[in-house]
Amino acid sequence: MTLRKYIEEEPLRAYKVYKIFVIGLLFLFVIILSFLLNLVFKPLIIKIPSLVAVLIVSYFSYNLLMINPKAKIKKIFHFFYNSELDLYEVQWLSKDFEKFLGPDFEILYEIYNDYFSLRDRFSSEYAPNLSDYSCMVLPLAKAYEGVLKKILVRAGFINEADLQENPDISISRYFNPVGNNAIFRALKDQARDKTIPHVIYSTYQECRNLILHYDPYRDNRLKTIEDAEFYERRISDAIKKAYETFQKVEAKPEVETVKVKMMREKRKSRLIRPKISFRENETTG
User: Fold this and answer.
1) Using CB atoms within 10 A of its CB, is residue 120 exposed (0-12), middle (13-18) or buried (19+)?
2) pLDDT in tens, 173-188
3) Which positions fall inside the Bacterial toxin RNase RnlA/LsoA DBD domain (predicted)?
4) Of 21, 44, 134, 136, whose CB is crowded by the most CB atoms within 10 A?
C-alpha cells in the first residue's frame, strides 16, 4: 500500500504521518548539528551549552511546525501528489468514530457536512450578503449536540430510552463543571482529561446557546463568513476532544434503571383518558 492510498483511505492518518515526519526531521537535525558541533568545538565546556541550545531550538521548531497542521498537511499533500485532501472530514471518516456513533453516524455526518455546503455557497462570487451568518453554524451545533448525546449514553448518564421519551433533554447540565462531579468520575484519566468537560460545556454554551438565540442587549451576530469559520473550528475541536476522551470510557450496557421505568409508567398513566360514551350521556339525559 502506498503512502497516498494509506492517507486517503482514512485521512485521520495524515496527522500521525505529519507528526512522525516532523519528529524525524528534527531528530535528524539534532544528530547532524551535534556531529558538526563535535567537529568544530573540542572543549566539553562549549559542547554542552551548544547541545542544550540545539535542543531548545528543536523544541520551539516542533511547536512552530505543529501550529495549524491542517494547512501544512494540505500543502505538503498537494506538493507531492498534486491533489487536494479534504481534512475537514478527517474525524468523521474515522472507522472508530463511525463505530462510536453507531446508527446515528450517517445522519450526523450529513448534518455536519451541510455546513461546508453552506460555506461554499456563501463564499461564491454571486452569494448574497447576510447581516448574520449564524445559519452556517446551525448544522455544526446540531451535529455537536448529537455527538454529546451519544457520549452521555456511552458513559451511562442516560440511555436510548431517555432520548426516545424526551428528545428535548438538557444535555449541557451533564457537562457543567460547576457542581457536577459525576462527569469527572466517568473520565478514564482524570488527571489528564479534567479540562475536557470545561471545553465541552463552554463550546456548547457559546457556539450553540449564545449564537443561535437572540439577545436584545448584545449583538451576537456572526457578521462575516470568517466569524462562522471560527466557530466551526471551535466546535470541530470540541467534538474531537470529546471523542478522544470518552472513547476510552468503557461503554455501559443498555439497562433500564428503576427511575426510568417509573417515569415511563408515569407517562403512560398520564396518556390514559377515560372513555366517554356520548350515547350513554344522551340516554341519561
Assistant:
1) exposed
2) 888 887 666 777 777 7
3) 96-208
4) 136
- Residue 281: inside a domain, yes or no? no
Q: In the chain, helix, strand, coil percent, each to 5?
A: 70, 0, 30
Would you tell me how many other CB atoms lie within 10 Å of the CB of residue 131?
7
Cα 281–chain centre separation: 61
Hey, what amino acid is at 62? Y
Residue 282 lies in a domain: no
* Within-domain flag for 284: no
DSSP 137-191: HHHHHHHHHHHHHHHHHHHTSS-HHHHHH-TT---HHHH--SS--HHHHT-SSHH
How many domains does the chain contain in total? 2
Q: How far apart are CA 37 and CA 152, in angstroms?
A: 55
**Rounded to two decimals, what is the model's pTM?**
0.59
Give the C-alpha separation, 47 to 38, whole Å.
7
- Verify that 22 and 44 share a domain, yes or no: yes
159: left (phi over 0), alpha (psi -120 to 50) or beta: beta
